[in-house]
Amino acid sequence: MTTKLFINGQWVAATGGTFTTHDPATEELIAEVGKASTADLDAAVDAARAAFENPEWRDMLPADRARLMFRFADLVDQHQEELAQLETADQGQPISISRVVSSKMAAEHIRYYAGWVTKIEGRTSPISTPNTFHYTRREPVGVCGLITPWNFPLSILSWKLAPALATGNTVVIKPASVTPMTAIRLVELADEAGFPAGVVNLVTGPGSIGAAMAEHRGIDKISFTGSTEVGQSIVRASAGTLKRVTLELGGKAPSIIARDADIDAAVAGNLMGGLLNSGQVCAAYTRFYIDTRREDEFLTKFAAGMEAMTIGAGKNESTQLGPLVSAEHLQHVEELVAKGRAEGAELVTGGERAADTGNFYRPTLFSGVTDDMTLATEEIFGPVLSVLSYQDSDELDELIRRANNTEYGLSSTVWTKDLRVAHRLANGIRAGAVFVNSPPIPDMAAPWGGFKASGWGNEMGPYALDAYTEIKGVWMNYGD
C-alpha cells in the first residue's frame, strides 16, 4: 500500500515522493508512505488557517464540538484492536502494551477532553478602575503543529490532538517517519467523525518537515515530544515567529530503593518501569540507587527477572520484550553498552543482541556504575539499566543531590515503606513526576511534563488547556 497526506478534508498524493516503514521484528515492508514536501506543508497550514477562521468551526457551539469529540472517541473505541495491531506492527511494542497503553489510552484522552469542551471558563477580576467590569476569555491559540515521536505514536498523538481540538484550534500533524501508520488511521477516524475540512491535517515525512513547521509563519504553536536535542532546535527555529511551544523531551529517571523497601515489589515495579516498550520510554527508570545492604538481593532477583522475560515479536501474546524500533537505534544501544563496559561498569546480564534478524536486544543490567559514567548520564532509550549503590548512613540530602545530578527531570520513583522518607525524597527530587512504589504510568487527568532539559509546559489534565489557549482580558466601561 501507498499512503497519502490529509489536507483540507481530502487524501492527496504527496509531491515529495515516498519513503518506507518496516516491521522492526521482521524487517518486512509495511507501506510506502507519502513524503510531504514544503509545498505540501504550506497547503496543510493554509487549510488549517482557513478552517480556524471559518465560522463553521470557529463559532461551533461547545455542546456541538463536544458531541463531535465524543463521536471521535467512540470510533477509536470501536477500532481499538485494529489500532493496537497496527501500532505493534509499525513500532514493535508488545500487543498487550499496544492494547492498554496505546489504543485504549487514545480513546480515553479524547473522551476526557470532550468532557472539558463545555467547561472552559473565564473569570471576573476585581480591578480598581472606576465604572469598569473586567472579565477574561480563554481563546484558542490558532494553528497548532503536533510533532509526535516513534516510541508511543498513537497515545502521544492523542495527548496533543484531544486538547487542541477541545479548545477550538486547528492542527497539522507530523508523526515520526519510522512509525506513521497509527497517525494515518487516527486521522481517518477523525474524518469519519465529521470534523470540518481543514480542522485536522496530516503530513508525513522526514525530520526536515518538522523543522519547517517550527519555522513556519502560518503555525502559531508547536507541541513536540522527542529528544532534548531536537527540542532545542525547535526552540531556536520558532524564535523568529515567537511561537508558543510545548516540549516533552528526554529523561534519565532515578529509582531510589530504600533499605526498608519491599524488594520483591521494587523488582517487579522496576522491571516494568525500566523495560516497558523495551526501555524506549522517556520516563523509564534507568538509574537504580540501592542501599548497599539490599544491593545483592536486588541484583540477584532483578537479573533473574530480566533473564526470564519472553523476547519476541510484539504480535505474539506471550511477548514481554519486543524489538527496538530500528536497526539504527539498535546500533546506538550497542555502542552505549560497549562504552559502559569500557568505562568499568560490571555487566550482570544481557549486553548482546537476542536474534540474528529483527532489532532485538537482551535486557541488560550493569552494577558498579558511578555517577559520572555514560550509563548514568546519557539517555540510552533501550533495555539497559544501571545500579548505583549508596550507604544507608548517607544523608537524604546527599541522595537527592545524586538523583538530581542530571540535565533531565521528567520522571522518578521512590521505593520505601517510610512516609517520612517518601515525602522528603518526593519534595527534593527535581522532576515533573515522582511515583512512590509505582511504575511510571501517566493518567489523562494528571499533569505530565518535565523540569530542566526534559521540557516546557504540561500535557494532560486541565493543565493542557493552558497550553492550547490564550487569555484575553475584556474591559467594559459602564460609566458616563
UniProtKB/TrEMBL annotation:
SUPFAM superfamilies with a match to the protein in the record:
ALDH-like (SSF53720)
Please list the residues that make up the active site: 248
Q: Which Gene3D superfamilies match?
A: Aldehyde Dehydrogenase, Chain A, domain 1, Aldehyde Dehydrogenase, Chain A, domain 2
All residue ranges annotated as the Aldehyde dehydrogenase domain in the record: 11-473
Could you list this entry's UniProt keywords, alphabetically sorted.
Oxidoreductase
Q: Which PROSITE patterns match?
A: ALDEHYDE_DEHYDR_CYS, ALDEHYDE_DEHYDR_GLU
Q: Which InterPro entries match?
A: Ald_DH/histidinol_DH (IPR016161), Ald_DH_C (IPR016163), Ald_DH_CS_CYS (IPR016160), Ald_DH_CS_GLU (IPR029510), Ald_DH_N (IPR016162), Aldehyde_DH_dom (IPR015590)
Q: Transmembrane residues, as ranges?
A: none
Q: Which is one Pfam family of this protein?
A: Aldedh
Single GO term (MF): oxidoreductase activity, acting on the aldehyde or oxo group of donors, NAD or NADP as acceptor
From which domain of life does this come? Bacteria
Please give the family membership noted in the entry: Belongs to the aldehyde dehydrogenase family.
- Its name, as the record gives it, is Aldehyde dehydrogenase family protein
Q: Provide the species name.
A: Kocuria tytonicola
